[in-house]
Amino acid sequence: MTRRMVFLPLFLFGLAPLTGVLAGCGASTNPDPIQIQLAIYTKDCIDVLGASTAPGAYLQLYPCGAGKLSQEWNFVSVPNDVTAVTVVNENSKLCMSVAYPYDTYPGQYIIQAPCDPTNPDMLWRVQNAPKGQAGLQFINVASGECLDDPYGMTDPPDSYHMQQYYCTAGDPGQGWNNNPVQLGDIP
User: Fold this and answer.
1) 109: which DSSP letter?
2) How far is the first Cα of the chain from the last one, in angstroms, to the nearest whole number?
3) pTM, 2 dp
4) Which of 145, 123, 113 is nearest to 79 (CA)?
């Protein structure tokens, strides 16, 4: 397997203002994957349901685990939009996407799908959350809505399908941390 690299601005990790842009050619990825973790309830990460490698599998909130490829993601810059990325799962090599066919209604599920950097359903802008909210927001390019943990659910069984929803300042279900991890070996 060939590993590719991207140079990501520090704002993706909450370390610098949003004056940077994504650099590199559109086919590059960061050398180390990240876990996308709720900023407030830090025990939970974005995970592919059942560690599926199939297109259409739902993304869920699930307790973070070391070495779990289904929770490891890479950002890939988009050639024609330096402010957007695709978010690729290490286990399936599929991209985070609003369920097809896309619409802009809130509550659409987030799934994994074959990567297509021309499809706005799977393009995301990652930016600092508004003042008073922890972490980063993932904003879908097609809808302008945020990656959202429905109702801020974090109670057992800790498995909730991710959705897009209106970006709401102060919503703890829309604030995310990107935590670099070493590439795992568990699906």
Assistant:
1) B
2) 16
3) 0.82
4) 123
